[in-house]
Design brief:
Residues 23-53 form a coiled coil. Keywords: Coiled coil. By secondary structure, the protein is an all-alpha fold. The chain has a domain at 33-65. The protein is built from 2 helices and no strands. The protein has helices spanning 2-10, 13-62. The longest helix is centred in the middle third of the chain and has 50 residues, at 13-62. The protein is rod-shaped and about 85 Å long. The termini are far apart.
């Protein structure tokens, strides 16, 4: 019975081709999203550093001269 099921699943090449195309599309999408995450993390780090710098400058302005 197992051979019959495996043979049945492997017999439809169109299905395999469609899955391959969908897999490639999803891999590209994942790569795009990973790239976006890296870009957003870098931007977030840059903005956080700017906030820390402004906070430091504001504290320095409060110090008596």
């Amino acid at each position: 019975m197992a051979k019959a099921l495996i043979g049945h699943l492997d017999s439809d090449r169109r299905h395999t081709t469609a899955l391959t195309v969908e897999n490639q599309r999803l891999r590209r999408r994942v790569a795009d999203l990973e790239s976006l995450v890296l870009r957003l993390q870098a931007e977030n780090d840059r903005l956080a550093a700017a906030v820390r710098e402004e906070s430091r400058v504001a504290v320095d302005d409060l110090q008596p001269a």
